[in-house]
Recover the amino acids of this structure.
């Protein structure tokens, strides 16, 4: 099942268009499980579905999330989660400082503000994160220097200390994602950390496909849809 899902996603990407949506697998915008210092554009809705395959207690963990750009620097959202039990988590992110020149963007946020999701512990995932674009945009996939976006942060709850992620633009349409999180997502009941890697591709100008490996042990995948309702 895992190989089949990954193969289908990779084949579809051959017909994809530029990437827009960037919901994380847990709900808030970001990398795989970690956030960055970017928010959904004002007035934009982003709806996403992500599924971790047999990662948590050998059962699938599913998130169906929605984010909204309430203000130019403020994103609010929530996610319905299912892993044997159904929960609803509340998320928010605010950009304190936008990226200007050599100065990175800095944002603060929270995942599961009401502490309803106990699979990651009882504490909300408060965090502060800085994000910086590195290098010029690539003219083609063969360019020697392609643009990347590096994020470094610290948090509580699911983030459990230091985290970092890299969003690497390998072509106009495709992004490679890599992250470190101080939480063993593949074995949530044990101590440890995770190094996750993934692939993100724009299927249309509104739809994005995701595929990832969690600590190089398990598979996750998803789809995001972004739009503005007038």
């Amino acid at each position: 099942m895992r190989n089949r899902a990954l193969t289908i996603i990779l084949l579809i990407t051959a017909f994809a268009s530029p990437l827009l949506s960037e919901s994380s697998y847990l709900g808030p915008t970001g990398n795989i499980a970690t956030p960055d210092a970017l928010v959904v554009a004002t007035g934009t809705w982003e709806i996403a579905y992500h599924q971790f395959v047999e990662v948590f207690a050998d059962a699938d963990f599913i998130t169906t999330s929605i984010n909204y750009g309430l203000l130019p620097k403020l994103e609010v959202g929530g996610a319905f989660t299912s892993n044997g039990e159904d929960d609803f988590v509340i998320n928010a992110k605010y950009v304190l400082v936008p990226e200007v020149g050599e100065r990175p963007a800095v944002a603060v946020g929270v995942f599961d503000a009401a502490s309803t999701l106990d699979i990651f512990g009882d504490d909300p995932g408060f965090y502060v994160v800085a994000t910086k674009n590195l290098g010029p945009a690539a003219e083609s996939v063969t360019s020697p220097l392609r643009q990347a976006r590096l994020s470094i942060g610290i948090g509580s709850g699911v983030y459990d200390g230091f985290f970092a992620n890299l969003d690497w633009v390998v072509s106009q349409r495709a992004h490679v994602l890599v992250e470190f999180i101080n939480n063993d997502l593949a074995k949530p009941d044990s101590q440890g950390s995770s190094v996750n890697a993934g692939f993100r591709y724009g299927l249309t100008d509104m739809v994005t496909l995701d595929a990832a490996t969690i600590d190089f042990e398990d598979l996750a995948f998803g789809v995001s849809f972004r739009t503005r309702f007038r």
In short: The first strand starts at residue 45 and ends at 56. The longest helix spans residues 2-12.
